[in-house]
C-alpha cells in the first residue's frame, strides 16, 4: 500500500470484496455501476432459524425487483416488474406468476418469529450487535428514558 492509503476492514472490506469479486457488475443482469448488497437466506422451520448464507451485489433495479413489496410501496412496481421480465426473458403472465408465488412464500414465512443466524458475518470478522428481545424492549426503553432524564433534568 502506498502512503495515505489504508486497508479497509470489517463491513467495508466485506462489501468491497463482494463487489470486486463481480468486477463491479450486478450478479443478476451484469449491469455496471453502483451496486447494493442483498442478502440470501436459508430457512429452517424446525428452529425456526433464518441463516444468512450469502451477500450478493445487485444493481439498484435488480435489488428493487427482489423486494417487490417495497417497490409497490414506493410506487415503482411497474418498473420492477418490467425489469424482472427483461432479465428473465419472461412474458407478463410468467412474471405475474413468479411475483404471486414470491408473495405467497413471504406470507407463509411471516407467520413465524425467526431466530437470526448471522454467523457468516461473524466468521468474516464483522461484529454483530443483536437487537433486544421483544419481551425485554419495554424495560430497556424505560431504562433508556431514565438515563436521558438523569442527564437532562
- Percentage of residues in strands: 5-15%
Class from helix and strand fractions: alpha+beta
Run of helices and strands: HEEHHHHEHH
Distance between the termini: 51 Å
Tell the overall outline: elongated
Counted by DSSP, the helix tally is 7
How many domains? The number is 1
Enumerate the strands of the largest sheet in spatial order, edge to edge or round the barrel: 1-2-3
Question: Helix amount, in percent?
Answer: 40-55%
Based on CA atoms alone, the radius of gyration comes out at 20 Å
Task: Give the overall pLDDT as a whole number.
Answer: 85
Low-confidence parts, pLDDT < 50 over ≥5 residues? 1-10
Number of strands: 3
The profile of the biggest β sheet is:
3 strands, mixed
What is the element layout, followed by pairings?
Blueprint (H helix, E strand, L loop, with lengths): L9 H12 L14 E9 L4 E10 L1 H7 L1 H6 L3 H12 L3 H18 L5 E3 L1 H5 L13 H15 L2
Parallel strand pairs: 2-3
Antiparallel strand pairs: 1-2
Helix pairs in contact: 2-4, 4-5
Descriptive overview:
By secondary structure, the protein is of the alpha+beta class. It contains 7 helices and 3 strands. The longest helix is centred in the middle third of the chain and has 18 residues, at 92-109. The termini are far apart.
Short description:
This protein is of the alpha+beta class. 49% of the residues lie in helices and 14% in strands.
Amino acid at each position: 500500500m502506498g502512503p495515505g492509503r489504508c486497508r479497509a476492514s470489517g463491513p467495508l472490506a466485506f462489501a468491497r470484496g463482494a463487489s470486486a469479486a463481480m468486477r463491479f457488475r450486478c450478479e443478476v443482469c451484469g449491469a455496471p455501476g453502483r451496486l447494493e448488497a442483498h442478502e440470501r437466506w436459508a430457512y429452517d422451520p424446525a428452529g425456526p432459524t433464518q441463516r444468512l448464507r450469502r451477500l450478493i451485489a445487485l444493481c439498484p433495479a435488480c435489488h428493487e425487483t427482489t423486494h417487490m413489496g417495497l417497490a409497490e410501496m414506493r410506487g415503482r412496481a411497474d418498473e420492477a416488474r418490467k425489469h424482472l421480465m427483461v432479465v428473465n426473458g419472461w412474458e407478463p403472465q410468467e412474471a405475474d406468476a413468479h411475483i404471486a408465488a414470491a408473495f405467497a412464500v413471504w406470507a407463509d414465512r411471516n407467520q413465524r418469529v425467526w431466530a437470526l443466524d448471522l454467523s457468516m458475518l461473524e466468521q468474516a470478522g464483522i461484529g454483530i450487535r443483536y437487537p433486544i428481545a421483544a419481551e425485554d424492549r419495554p424495560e430497556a426503553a424505560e431504562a433508556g428514558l431514565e438515563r436521558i432524564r438523569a442527564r437532562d433534568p
